[in-house]
Design goal:
This protein is an all-alpha fold. The protein contains twelve helices and no strands.
Length: 212
């Protein structure tokens, strides 16, 4: 099977199974999504969604969060992973948004990467989810699933994976494909024990074909 054929069949299956995939993070503004994504690093979306409602109520805007102290903000997010680092990232992000971007979350990767706590993955999540841009955020799920299925081969790092996926997925499908691969990795193609018996991609999956 050629790489082009594998991509075609994988994307067709995902489109049929998940025509309108969405992020599992709860948010109502771009700023709140940015906060949630920063908190989600090495933390489950479920935990983040428990933490964010009172956090968003206390700090609905970058301006309000920028005025907080580390101690005040820490009390809201202390149950997530690495709360000290994330407290500093959130305060830095809020203050940067206020001081450099007029309190608005920028819609381009160069400006997003200037924000404390925002790396390439977070920036691409924002571009894909908020602005439906052809940005591929590569987390551990996307990295693992892409390699297992055979969408990538020997990717050394997330950027390798991102480049391969963007080069082979139609631009209009890239925002959805980001969700497809994350959700598939989260619920089916799990890290320790992939649920191949309940996966509709076994006929085209490189991992399954080798293991069977």
């Amino acid at each position: 099977m050629t790489v082009k054929e594998r991509y075609r069949r994988v994307l067709q299956w995902f489109a049929a199974e998940m025509p309108s995939p969405q992020t599992e993070l709860s948010y109502d503004t771009p700023f709140h999504l940015l906060v949630a994504v920063i908190l989600s690093a090495q933390c489950t979306d479920k935990r983040v969604n428990i933490v964010t409602p009172p956090l968003f109520e206390a700090y609905p805007t970058p301006e309000s969060m920028a005025r907080a102290t580390e101690e005040e903000l820490f009390t809201y997010i202390k149950s997530v992973s690495y709360p000290n680092n994330k407290t500093r990232s959130l305060l830095g992000a809020a203050r940067t948004l206020v001081e450099e971007f007029g309190g608005e979350v920028p819609d381009n990767i160069d400006d997003l990467l200037k924000i404390p706590g925002v790396g390439r993955k977070t920036a691409n999540v924002m571009l894909a989810v908020v602005w439906n841009k052809a940005a591929m955020a590569v987390d551990t799920h996307v990295f693992r699933v892409s390699e297992r299925i055979g969408l990538t081969t020997g990717s050394r790092n997330p950027l390798d994976t991102e480049k391969a996926l963007v080069a082979n997925i139609p631009e209009a499908d890239i925002p959805r494909a980001h969700h497809w691969l994350i959700l598939h990795g989260r619920y089916v193609c799990k890290a320790r024990r992939p649920d191949c018996l309940n996966c509709g991609l076994t006929e085209v999956c490189r991992f399954y074909q080798k293991e069977k």
